[in-house]
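FIELD: query
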Amino acid sequence: MAEKRDYYEVLGLQKGATDDEIKKAFRKLAKQYHPDLHPGDKEAEEKFKEINEANEVLSDPDKRARYDQFGHAGVDPNYGGGGAGGGFGGFGGFSGDMGDIFDTIFGGFGFGSNTRSANPNAPRRGSDIQTNVTIDFMDACKGKKMKMKFTRAEQCEDCKGTGAAPGSSAKTCPDCKGSGQVRVSQRTPFGNISQTTTCSRCGGKGRVVDNPCRTCSGQGMVRRTVEKDIEIPAGIDDGQTLRVSGEGNRGQNGGPSGDLHINVNVKPDPLFERDGYDVWTEIPLTFTQATLGDDITVPTVDGKVTYTVPEGTQTGSVFRLRGKGIKKLNRSDRGDHYVRVNIEVPKNLNKDQKEKLREFERSLGEKNYAKRNSFRDKFEKKFKDFFKN
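FIELD: result
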């Protein structure tokens, strides 16, 4: 078995990372190595599996606690001889987990005894899966129904999930009598200790298949690419994850399906900039429009609207259009649309235009330039005080 990398190292984190740091690291790497972005790339596929495995452990408080204490052996019973006790090779070759040791010696005290009575053939929920989607800015604002393809585990149609070839059936495992577990005794420094371990013959399923289904190789499940109509809700933002209930891997033994998690990427827009549920647009005005005022056309996510710019509008002024922003996710109210104006100074004037502009400037009085006068007064006071000292 190849040596597994440290899960924190896989996600590029340090031990003690917060839940939010784990989530962000996983999302970033999952996007980078997702198989859909690297079709046929086995290295990217293996990397993606490794990232998923690390996230599955570190995002689960119980699994993470066991991993932090025992390493891979605390969360993978097949790693290094099995269980958190896999490192006790010097104890007569004992390879059971620490839960079995404490359960036998100290009467259980909550160490892993709950798995003993579990029915291996009980209904089991399918695992969740993830995929990515990239949508346009307007689709994020308005919502969109779209067809999406993704791969998930489904019940094998040929064997109906039994794992047995058509015409045959699985039978109760003779070693564990259908329980999926067997008890074995080993001599240790503590004396003879009995432990419960997964049945090696049936792999814990409680059933064995003598004639496995060729389609699924006896697993009862196959990976299949499906196409589904997915509703992207209005108001979703870049980087958010959409959960679609029941569209993940199919459950086993009649158990419910897992969920589909869709990581949403939103393309930037050339006109609009999003800030939460508000939208910003920058609109250039001519010198005359800003001076005299004008009715201008403003693009919004709902289409064009007319706004009256008042006389004497200054560059950088911001106007607010209430309720013209983005619909809030799963709510009826909306954000606002903000318009920032930028005065465009005319270029390439001819001689006659320049002279008329100078004549216009000479006709103005001090009252027309309040900001310039205020600046001049502050400037003169500043340097007068400077030379005084």
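FIELD: remark
The first strand starts at residue 129 and ends at 135.
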